[in-house]
Design goal:
- The structure is a single chain.
- With 170 residues, the chain is of the alpha/beta class.
- It contains six helices and five strands, in the order ααβαβαβαβαβ.
- Helix content is 41%, strand content 14%.
- The two termini are 23 Å apart.
Length: 170
């Protein structure tokens, strides 16, 4: 089993916990600023830069491990990036709490980068007021990808779709 398969299996195992945690769901309709910020930059002929926060990578041996999100987010904010992508999967040292911490130090749009496979994860993302989510085409069927995209949009979130190769488009 490769790293990606292991992570997706872990996500499947976590779904029942999330469904219990958010058993009573409040109505959420968040107004994402992600696309608006990119469109604003485009209209001003500026480049849009998305900076990523992750503490480490399970597939990279020589990755510089980062413990403090506070200093990294403050430096991204100071550098005036357009948006900040935060990897919330535990295999990369992340958690949904990283979104909470980041929002204390920046008002930039936040993208939740995770291995999203179920609408409950999108509800959780909306609950924590992220602006966009990342969907990974490689781990989803076309039908599931469209379902999750529509779910995200119903909560007012924007969607980025990660495609690594032509194979992901088929």
């Amino acid at each position: 089993m490769n790293v990606l398969e292991k992570i997706v299996n872990e996500q499947n195992s976590k779904l029942s916990y999330l469904n219990r945690k958010y058993k009573i769901r409040k109505k959420i309709k968040y107004k994402s600023r992600f696309i608006k910020e990119i469109e604003k930059n485009n209209s001003q002929n500026k480049t849009s830069l998305i900076a990523e926060f992750k503490r480490f990578s399970p597939s990279v041996k020589e990755f510089k491990k980062i413990q403090s999100i506070r200093e990294v987010i403050k430096s991204y904010d100071k550098a005036n990036v357009t948006c900040i992508s935060i990897l919330t999967d535990k295999n990369f040292g992340g958690s949904i709490n990283d979104i909470v911490i980041a929002k204390k130090y920046t008002n930039k749009p936040i993208i939740r980068k995770d291995f999203i496979i179920d609408p409950i994860q999108i509800y959780e993302s909306a609950f924590y007021e992220v602006d966009a989510i990342l969907l990974i085409a490689r781990i989803l069927t076309e039908k599931k990808l469209l379902e999750l995209e529509n779910c995200a949009r119903s909560y007012g979130l924007d969607v980025l779709i990660e495609i690594e190769s032509e194979k992901d488009l088929l």
